[in-house]
Specification:
With about 180 residues, the chain is an all-alpha fold. It contains 9 helices and no strands. The longest helix has 27 residues.
Length: about 180
């Protein structure tokens, strides 16, 4: 039985790793923190995989662990983060515009409080319904709505962000 559970866990990780890391990146704003955060959440998931696998939605369970682990990161020690407008590696010519846009977006997201940032990422980047975001964050759908509204309002005031969005408020689906 244990071998079967481990196989299911390994299959889950293989199928969802990049998606979880992308979500963690949007929560942290740093690729290295994102991988560490994902590994921490998956290590916790592994320890309780029997319970996680029995849940209706193991991915939502692990996503909640990601958000919790990210919150724990700030509780343990406040780390001054400064996001840059360009990634450390050189972008190709086709990627320059996206790098600039991504840098502005990540800097704007970093200005949001952690809960608003988590709501905005899950609602508009991950395209999760309000009910699922509420479940992941352990709050009511009304809280998700108010945090999303406040987060979007704050993002709309961020200098330079609207210039990339063409002044229309964004790309629509968040991708």
């Amino acid at each position: 039985m244990q071998a079967e559970l481990e196989d299911r866990f390994h299959d889950f990780v293989a199928a969802r790793w990049s998606h979880l890391v992308r979500t963690a990146y949007l929560l942290t704003g740093d690729a290295h923190h994102a991988e560490d955060l994902t590994q921490t959440a998956l290590a916790k998931a592994y320890r309780s995989w029997r319970r996680v696998a029995r849940s209706d939605n193991p991915e939502a369970y692990v996503r909640r662990m990601l958000v919790s682990c990210n919150s724990d990161r700030f509780r343990k020690r406040r780390v001054a983060e400064s996001l840059t407008s360009a990634p450390p590696e050189r972008a190709g010519r086709d990627d320059v515009a996206w790098s600039d846009e991504r840098g502005v977006l990540m800097t704007a997201l970093a200005q949001l409080p952690p809960r608003q940032r988590a709501v905005v990422v899950m609602r508009y980047w991950e395209d999760l319904p309000e009910a699922e975001v509420a479940e992941v964050l352990g709050c009511s759908p009304g809280t998700v709505k108010s945090q999303a509204s406040k987060g979007l309002a704050k993002l709309r005031t961020y200098p330079g962000l609207m210039e990339f969005a063409g002044g229309s408020g964004g790309r629509g689906g968040g991708r």
